Structures are given as C-alpha cells and as structure tokens.
User: Fold this.
Amino acid sequence: MTNLSRRQFLVSGAAALGTAAFAPEALCAVTEWTGAKSLPADITGHIFKNDSPQKPWKWSKPGFSYHTMPKDVVVCEICPHGCVLEKGDRSICRSKVNINGVLYTLTYGNPCSVNIDPIEKKPLFHFHPKTRAFSIAATGCNFRCLNCQNWEISQVRPEDIRFQEMFPEQVVSHAKQENAASIAYTYSEATTYFEYMIDTARLARKNGIFNLWISNGYINEAPLLELCKVLDAANVNLKSFDDAIYRKLNGGRLDPVLNTFKTLHRQGVHFEITTLIVPGYVDDPEMIKGMCRWIRDNLGPDYPLHFLRFFPQYKLDRLPPTPVSTLTEFRRLAMKEGIHYVYIGNVPGHEGNHTYCHNCGRLLIERMGYHIPTYNLRGNRCKFCKTVIPGRWDSTP
Amino acid sequence: MKKRIERQIASVVIATGVSSVVTQLLVIREFLSQFQGNEFVIALILFNWLLLGGIGTLLAGAAGKKAGPGRLAWISLALAGLSPLELLGIRGLRETCFIHGSAVGFYPTLAFSFLTIAPYGLLLGFALPYSLATARNLLPAYTGTRIYITDNIGDVLGGALFSFVLVLLVSPLQAVLIANLPLLVAACWIHPSPLWSRSSIAPMALSALVLLAAGAAVEKSTLVLAGKQLAYYHESLYGRIEVFKDREQYTLVLDGKPMYSSENTNIAEETVHYPLSQPNRVNTVLMISAEGGVMTEAEKYHPESVDYLEIDAALTDAVFQFGLIKKIPGLHVIHQDGRAYLKKTDKKYDAILVNLPEPDTFQVNRFFTDRFFMLAKNRLEPGGILSFSVEGYANYLNDAQIEKISSLYRTARLHFAHVLMLPGQKVFFLCADFPPSTDIPRRLDEKKIETGYIRGFYYGNLTDDRIAALHRRIKPDAPLNRDYAPQLIRLMFSDWFAKFSTSPKGFIAVTALLLTLYLFFITREELVLFSTGFMAMGSEILVIFAFQMFLGYIYFQIGLIVTVFLAGLLPGAVFGESLRRRSRMVLLLGDGTLIGLLILFIAAVIFMGDRLPMTAYLLFGFAVSVACGCQFPAALYLQGSGKPAAIRAFSSDLIGAAFGTLITSVVLIPYAGIAWTAVALILLKTISFIVTRTGHDKPF
Assistant:
C-alpha cells in the first residue's frame, strides 16, 4: 500500500465524502433528467463485417438497386441507411450481402412466416373491408425497434431460421387458392426483401390480386416509385414525430419516413398511418398536434390515422400500457387538427374502432374486432349524406 | 489496554459484517428491481459480489506494517458512506446508462453490476484482512481465525437483522442507515484521536451520517417511471411493489416490471375465458396469482368460490386498494405458497388457473414441473381443467421458444390426456382429461358470456392454421421439466439470450480461463478452502432449492436456513481452532463429513422427498456450515501464521463461494438436476480430500 501522509489522507477522504454527501441530490437530478434523455441516444444497427456466406444460395438474387465502387465495394440503394459493404460484409438489415463485388439479397423466395389474416389486422380500415390478405414475411429489418412484435424474424439472418420455399409464382398461386383478395408484405420489414416483394407484386397485379405494403416507411424514393407502380395500399408506421425518439427507440430517422408519405401521396397510393403511443416517449400532446398538422398540410385530411395502444413488449417491457384516455384525447386532438378518420387500436369496444362519416358524423362501419356488424356505405359513399369516403371500397363488402 | 484493543477490533469487524450483509441483500434486491430477475442474473450479482470481495482481499496483501486503527477507522467510514451510494448509484446509473423502460441483456448487466459493485465490494474485501493486519500490528498473537470468527458473528447478526427485522419495518435506504450506525460508532471508537481533538474523525463520521440520512430522505424521489405519479410504494418480504398513476390508469409494477394494469381487458379475458369456457360446470376456481381484471371476467360464470392464492399479502393489499382486481362474491384470498397450499388442501376445483411470470427462477419454475402438474391434477374435479401460460410470439416461433414450449407440453402431457396450446403474445396451455375446444367464442356463446376482445379478435388471430402450426412444432424429444431436474430453467436462459441476440459462451470461456489460472497458482490448503467456499454456497443453494420444491416458498423459514448456514461457521471455526495442531486431520474430517452429509442429503431427498421435515434442512445446513467452518482455521494453520497466508485463505474462501454460486445455479442444477449437482459437489470435495491426504506437512 502506498504510504499516505495523515494530511493527504484527511484531504482526500474529506473530498471524497464531501462529493458523496451531495451525490443523492445529484443522482436525483440525473435520474429525473435521464427519465427522458437517457443513453444511448441512437440504436441504429451496424454493418456486419465478414458475415456474408461464401457464395449466393438458392434464395439469392442480385440486388434491385445498388452501385459499385472501387475495390468491389457496393452501396445498397434500397433504404436511407445506404449500407456501404466491402466484400464479405452484410447489411444492417441482415438481408443483403456483398459477394465478390455483387450485392445479393438472401431473401428471395424463402418466407419464414405465411398466414392468412383479416385485412383489418394490418390495420387497413379503408381498403376492401372484410377481405383476407395472404400475408408473407422473409427475415430482416432496417430498424431495431425496442418494442418489435416480430423480433424473432426481424432481428435474425435469413440463414438462421426455418422457412418455406415459395417463389413469386407460388405466392400468387397460394393466394389464389386461399381466395385472398390481396397479398400483404408484412410482419418483418418488407423493404428488406424488396426484390422478392416487387417481383411477387408485379405478378399479383397481373393476376388481379392487390398488393399491400406494411412498413416502417424507411425506403429511398427510387425503389418506392418502382413499387408504387404495382402497389394498391400501404400501412406505414409513423413511429413518432421526433427524430431523437426515432433514433433512440427505433434506430432510424424521421425525415425519410415523411418523404415516403409524400411519395405515396403523390403516386396516388391508398395508405393509412399507424402511430404506437409509447408512454413516456410518444405521448406528448404537442408532438401529436404537430404531427397531425404536418399530415394535414402535406398529405391532406383523408388518410386514416391509427393510434395504437402500447403494451410492454420485447425489450421495452418496463413501461406501462398506454392509458385509454390518452388515446381518446389524441383522437380528439387529431380530429380537431382536421384529420377526418382517426382510429384507436388495441382497445376493444372503443368508439375509435368504428368509421364515422366526416361530413354527417353518422356511423358508417361498426367494427367488433374483425367483424363488421354494421356497414353503411353504398359503393364509396356515405349511405346517409352521399359524401365520398376516402379509400378503396367494394360495392358490397 | 490489550482487552480494549481487542474489543475495538472486534466491534469494527462485527459492525462491518452487519453492514456488509445488509448492504449485500439490499443490492441484490435492487438489481432484481432494475434488471431481469432470472436465476442467471441473481447468480451473476452474487458472483460479482463475492469475486470482488476476494479480489479486494488479495489487494490487502500490500497493506503491510502501516495498518493501524486510524486508517481502519477511515476505511470503515468510507464503507458506511459507500453503502447508500451503492444503492443510489444502481438506481441512477441504470437510468443513465440504459434506455428508460427497456430491458437489459446479459453482458451489459454483467458489466454494470461489476462496475457498480466494485467500489464497495473491493473495499469490503480489503477491510477484513486490513483489520487483521491492524490487530497483528498491535497484538502479534492475534490470529486469522479469530478475525474469521468475529466476521461471521457480524454476518449472522446482519443476516438476521435484515431478514427478520429491517425488511419488515423499513425501506432499503433506511435499512442502510440503521445497519451502518454501529459501524460509524465502532470507527469513532477505534480511531486513536479523541473526538474533540484537531485530528478527530468526527467530521468524517458526521459526513458519513449525513450521507446515510440523505439517502434515506431522498429515497422515494429516486423511484421513477417517466412522467408517471408514484401512487404507492412498499418493500415487501418478496420484492418491491410500486403503483404508478397515469391519468385514470393505475399500473402495479413488481420488481421493476409492470404486472397489473387497471385497463388491460385483453389479457384478463384470455386468462379467464380460455380455460373457464371449457368445463361444463364452473363452481370452484383456484387462481394461483392473478392478472389485472381477472375477477371481473371470472364473475361472469357465477362461481360459488374463487380462491385467490398470493404469497405476498402486501401485493393483494395494493391490487385491491387500486381496483386492479375486483372483490367478487365468493372470493377468498389466501396468502400462502401455491404448492404448499395444493399439498395441504383437500378441496377440489373445477379449474385451476396459474398466472405466474416466466419460469426463469427456481421459485417460479416449481409451478411448471411434473410434480406440480400431478399435484394440480389431484386437486381437480373430474372434468376439471388446469391452465397456465408463458410468453408467446406473434408470427414465428424460434428454436428457443420451441424447446421451451415443447418441454412444457410434454411435461403436462404426463398427467393430462389432452393439452391444447393456444398461440399469441402468450401461449396458453389448457390441460384436461377431455379434449378442450379450440372454438372458444362458440363455447362462450353457449354459456351466454359476453366478451370484447375474444368475441372480436379470436377468429382472426387464432386461426386453425396457427393453432395447428404450433402443435406441429412440438419436439417429441424435448426434455421434461422435473422437480429434481428443472431443465426448463436452462431453456429459459436460451430464450433470454436469443432475445438479446447474444450468447454466454464468451463469458464462460473467460471465466473458465481465469478459474483455471487461479487453481493453477493456489496451494493445497487454498484449494481446500476454495472447495469449501464452493461447497458452502453450492449446498446452500441446493438446500433452498429442495426446500422450496417440497415445502414451498416460506419466507421466514428460508431466512432461517440462510442464517443457519452462516451460524454453523462459528462453532465450526472454534472447533477447528481447538484442534489446530491436528489440522490435516481436521481438513480430512471436514471433507469426509461434507461428503457424507451430501450423500445423506441425496438419499433423504430421493427417498423421503416432501416427508422431510423443516428441522432436517436446518440440521443439514448447520452441519455443513460447521464442517466448512472448522476447515478454515485448519487450512490457515497449515498455510502458515503470517498475514499473507491469512489473506490468501480469506480470498480462496470467497472466490470458491463466488464460483460455487454461479456454477451451482446456472450450470449444475439446470443442466444436471439436484442429484447430480450433489454428486458434483461430492466430487469436488473428494478431490480436496485426496489433495489433503496426499499432501506433505508443510505447504508447498
């Protein structure tokens, strides 16, 4: 032990304890401050170095959109991450790899989840109600959402899980067999298996089947424009209206998502917006008001907006559920800001489950979960006041 | 003068023991509130604590001739001051280092716990040999054994004070304040300068006191849930209960995780109607723990009686106070361990609903084993049904989940002719001797029971395809989850690691390497003490595990077992000291006794099982700790009487205890089961026996 003089010992001891004496207050202050601003501030994923297979496999295909750089470096152009991959690297979404200077997708024809869901489950409330969606997902996601519902498939490599072989022709064939009106690219992040999605969607369009894109909206404009040519409807998450929260809870950025909404709007694709109200993060009324104003000013008042109730999930399991009154208030705020159709999800029996005419206020569609006991549209118009209701409707549901 | 010095040293050592045990227990509880409370994390915290203590002890080797009462007083005061900072640090830094509201994975938990425990743990480990050095400098004849015995007195007092007094009466930081007051007094007493002199320690002692008091004063304000109002806070025997208010919604948070919410009808409907819709008659219902809103749903069946079992009376007080669970006609609240109750009661039920958290601790796992299913089956009326659930999935079942669900399915099938699994965010298991219907909405219609969630969403979410796909995934060779071999625990570990996309392999490799290096460099006597520390903690975990399995989780009795495990060290050490001239024989006798005791334990558990009385556990614990205690002075004598030898002896004991905790909890019991764990401990002690038997008289 190093020898200390008595004086040194006293001074250092007093200093240590003096600091410690103020520590509780300091800690309280830090605790309060960190309640909203704790580290880490950004959970964006990273490129996986030297994680690519040696050669493409049966379910590979050259990437839809990328460019090459010297030394066999490739840059993926599908999403705003723009992964720059050296030979042998794997993208943030885990689906794309650089094999000998070519960008390959590893998720072409190998869905890991295949189900038939009610279209209301997506949720899509203004697109052919009561129809069924043949829903598929391959692995991968360009986000790292702490509350991911599908983390088992979004946060793994394609090689690491079970899948079925189902190339685009087979997907369309299965959808027809099941009498599904649409094919939904869903569950994980469809953007990461873009090549598979767009080939399937093109074929589906030829066969009269609708294409539904359920996404976080984190996609570049060029591939999105290509997708829009065959897209019938989309549900895109607007996870918050704050870039810092996007970085912290989701590992993405806000602006590219907003651009996606603008592109879909310009291209005339029917879409609905979903926002999960996460307590402590996405439950600020001012933020919601700002978000609704942006929607109204940039997209118009007619795109349905869904506020979903949060439940503890995946890694975000130490927060309480969203109070129902918060959702009710946000619905009121959104409608006050001029949004015509605002829904509340994950709260059975709430009036925010139903569709009311934005003109006369009468009940148009009553929803009890996925059941629709009341349907008061005639074609695309309100049965009562004949107002055109935005969306895509069948003549009889 | 000599007597006074001896008393002063003893008072500091005893007070340090009291303070350290109370702090240790509070730190473990704090970690369980802030991090994942599974068996791995519990073992990891104890491992870090003991390992850091061992390292701190080794560091004291450098504190040679300069050790004296003045510096010992400073160290004691620093320990007292660090105690509240440790707890507040864990709370504050948890929020700083990790995203608010998020769970933390294995490696961040490992790093965080190591770093936050380090200041206190290292200093604590340092303090004991430093006390010995101080004593030796003043009284050359003072022995290491004497310090060991004195320290154990402090530990026993600390354990008893916390388990039987403080936990019942005060909050954590109040407990820290009370447990450290003796240390403040002892430090002032041993300091050579009078309190009123210029070089007095009084200002430092006063600062430490202010720090302790400040911790207690600000305690409530450090409990946060961003933007939510703390409506209720109570530290019960079993954990931390908080109720937060957000607008009209109350959420009960148990050990940091939201458990009950006043507005969560989805989960309440699933929990109640999936099982209760099945039997033709629902007169008597048993709920082992509950979910928010379940009684409202159960009331729809007009049962004659609903027995609601909850081990923690403080928890039921809170759920009723905030309306999280409704008091319905026929409701009987029973504060008892679920297994203990089922074992004793003669009452039969039409339905038993188990609503427990994930089975990732030994305590909860008891409700997911073959014997529990058998017990439940015996308490069901003919045509009755048992239900339980585990965390589920949305659209894909990964391998870890398949293993977990398959193990549960196969285990339940041992006692029930039919087990229906319903997928979703929770996977529900409906176990009966009749085939449960998958068409729950139809059953509810037949019974004229109204629901919101099930009626609206069941057909879209639980399609026949999804139900069939889940059953197709069952692995016919999945391990059974038995009381004696709780394989589910290790499957839960895999599930947890999968969620964080990580693996414990790196940790295991590094730990194994360090352990190998350590074992390579220690002496025979240190090896004996290492194995003794390993054995003491290993058998304590084993005994508590077996006790819970057979007699249920009974707080005070388990507290008593822990106390007995500490208390036996004292007479053991006295006995060993009295025979120090025949030390080798004492070591052999200790090892032989421990081996014999474990053989006896295995035989008793296998042949007597739940007929084993409480006194048997107490006697076993006491005998093990006497045998362990007697080895310390013997090994110390053989090591040589010098201070470095004592330091190495203390550290071997602590490092052995650290590895005993980790390996027994995380590897041996989950992978090998109770009997093989005992065999492994026997093997370890056999090696120790052989090493001692073949050793020379002098240390090599």
